[in-house]
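We emphasize that the prediction below concerns an isolated chain of 751 residues; any contacts that depend on oligomerization or on bound cofactors are therefore not represented. The input was used exactly as deposited, without trimming of termini.
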Amino acid sequence: MTGGSGFGLAVRAHRRRLGLSQEDLAERIGVSISTIGKVEAGRISQPRPATVRLLADAFGLTGDARDSFCQGADEVAPAARPATQLPPDVHSFTGRADELARLDALLAGSGTRPAVAVISALSGMAGIGKTSLAVHWAHRVAAQFPDGQLYVNLRGFDPSGRVMDPADAIRGFLDALGVAPGQIPASPDAQAARYRSLLAGRRVLVVLDNARDAEQVRALLPGSPTALVLVTSRNQLTGLLATDGAHPLNLGALSPRESRDLLNDRLGIERVDAEPGAVPEIVAACAGLPLALSIAAARAQQSGFPLAALVADLTEAGRLNALDTGDPLSDVRTIFSWSYATLTPPAARLFRLLGRHPGADLSTVAAAALAGAPVAATRRLLAELTRASLVTEHRPGRFSQHDLLRAYAAELVSPEEAGEALSRLIAHYVHTACTANRLVYPNLDAIAVPLEPRPDGVEAAPIAGHDAAMAWLTTEHANLLAAAAHAAGAGLHTYAWQLAWGLDTFHYRQWHLHDQVATWQAAVTAARHLDRPGVLAYTHRRLGEAYRRLGRPAEGSAQAREALALFDGIGDQCGVADVHLDLSMHAEREGNLEEALQHAERALAATRSAGAATESVELRTARALNTVGWFHALLGDQDAALTFCREALAINTRWGDEENIAFTLDSLGYAHQHRHDYEQAVDHYERAIDAFRRLGYASMTADALERLGDTHHEAGKRDAARTAWTESLDIRTRLELESAESVRVKLRTRS
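Result of the prediction step, given as a token string:
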């Protein structure tokens, strides 16, 4: 028979399991609210079969559970059997092997815990699959909880905005545990005590799904070590970890392989294999978010169109529209909005601005610049966003966003607000990069790069010394490139060329040739918009040098000659000297050493006619002296080489120019080597190598190591030669340099 108090209790338990009010359930199955009230109170002795079927559908019941419900099996006294409230298992559950293993390990060790329930706090962003994982694992281990499995949707993040009161959840659990309505205590505290006493000593799994915060969960925790609690939340529930001994499990995006497996399950392997090129693009567009992948697969199933058509819809601009199902429970944009709605106004503003950040991640100081807020206040806002799983602190003090969250955030910010924020952020990167560049190469202070005052609310990152500057440039490299591209596209011309300057030494030493060319190309374009001929000349010159190093000599020479004309036109003899030194390198690359020497001598003449012996003039003179000496050495006049290079070394040492000291020591080593003065050659090479390594000058370290190996070989020291050549080969292999082959030949034929 389907009726009576047993059926009514079952209806109430299922309704509360899903977090539905009587009004919600009545609307879902198309009956009056009073009907639902009468059914739950047992005042309808024989509900219509159609109503029973509608209720079963609304509760998602299938198989034996559905048959039992429809046949009135719930008239059996609930206290005489285990409580079972789990929703149906997830269809075609995919991936999460590591997370399932961690939950299994937690369960395996639960018997050795102290006299409290073991808690796992499963957190992650909206749509990441927290509920699916929790329900799937609960079904996998249900047999290990013979006294039942309790489940409740706490509606912490829900389209209705009605967060479930813990007292309501407890009353639902008491129903499921067989407590008759008349026996439920009146006060919430007494109900919680009754709930805990019923679970004492019972092997029960309690799944608390979609929790808002630790306070909502804490009242529902059993006090028995025989119970295990699995909590899911978009918030990190740090309080449960701190005071209740919860074990954190943060759920991240699916891997590309897991994402493909999900598409295989939903679409079938044959269809996926038929368009192998489309699948990686779908996976990338959905960024490992299970909900997004499921929606994309559903759209493909419904339309039957080629997967390439779905790829076209999942473009950057329209991605969230393509993932709009029209159902608030599964629409990506809508479920993100529930998390966004919980934020304080300052955190919500920062979240919006983060969506327009051009790089992959950012530091706290950069986020403060984006927001135009103090660093300490921004740190608190980032903590709020992290707790809400709207950003991820993937490394200490560095924050990133899921691609789809970023797309959602970008929709919420106005163009004016975004433009102002990005100008502040680019200013932060410009000021810090230029500071870092001067710390990496202190003598570049001789080159004037006047910076605009930092805008209000913008701080430069604190950097102390050469090593810290190189570390910052390494960490921020991708962000700085993105900032330079944004500055160029947004017409921030001064920032565009200054970022190229700030990155130049790092690019030069670390052999980032393509990046060096790209930033100086943008800098030349930007400089054409500025009324500063010296800046335009400088950008042409540096672009020419970048082209030369990349192996594009014709373009490099053209840029150098353009710079030469500009510097000559404004009477800048130091600039003229710099370009002649660059042209000497072009001539050397072409094998014309006599022309190379002539350009070096013209550079030396230009610096000597530049006026007062300032630091800038003297250091350029030293560079020219060393270059003249180098080409004399290559042309076989080692005595002249030593004379010029020793003079250069004295000047560089007086001014403490470590970079050019290293270059000059290398030149002196070459001259001594070819005079067969091997002891002096080794000494100079080793000092140069130490300096190049300290400065982070990878390619020059490799070159000097090869020459050191040559010197040892000529001196008959085969083991020392092999060691130096091997180190040189390792560096050149890492940098993917063609010159690595010459060292391989030496190792193969001479050692």
